[in-house]
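Reviewer 2 asked us to include a model.

Predict the structure of this chain.
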Amino acid sequence: MTGGTGTKGGAGRGTGRRFARVADSPLQLPLLLCSFALTGYAGVRLLDGDVLGVVLWFVGAAVLHDLVLVPLYALADRALRSAAPGTLVRAERINYVRVPAFVSLVLFAVWFPLILGLGGRYAAYTTLDPDVFLGRWLLITAGLFAASALCLAARALRTRHAGQPPPG
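Predicted model (structure tokens):
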């Protein structure tokens, strides 16, 4: 009988290969244990103060993510796929837009008070003029998209020279 992995013997053999791949490096297990220890330490320090406030913040973040952000992600992805009507947009090509957009949005989420000029007390800690953050974030975003475009062009050039059709 052939299992879901295409090998005889069912899922057991494919699962064994999958677990063998996880432990490729001897450093993976110690690094994983260290990350759990660091997360546990951060959780203990975080919950040392206002436990109810932290729990409310996590629940609010989960609800905001699931009810607001996931539909926005799906809408943006659908808009990106429909941006080129009549042509097949492959996932490899879309990822060259998704990755820099994601990194840019994460940077915005972390630095939004300073980017939007709402820094107030944070400006004193940065020792920078509050007006520089928007321009720098825009430059970083432009650099991310430019680097992504260069990677896509290099990939298309490499596949064209290899005799394969270009991606997308």
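Confidence is low (pLDDT under 50) at residues 6-12. The two ends are 37 Å apart (CA to CA). We have added this to the supplementary material.
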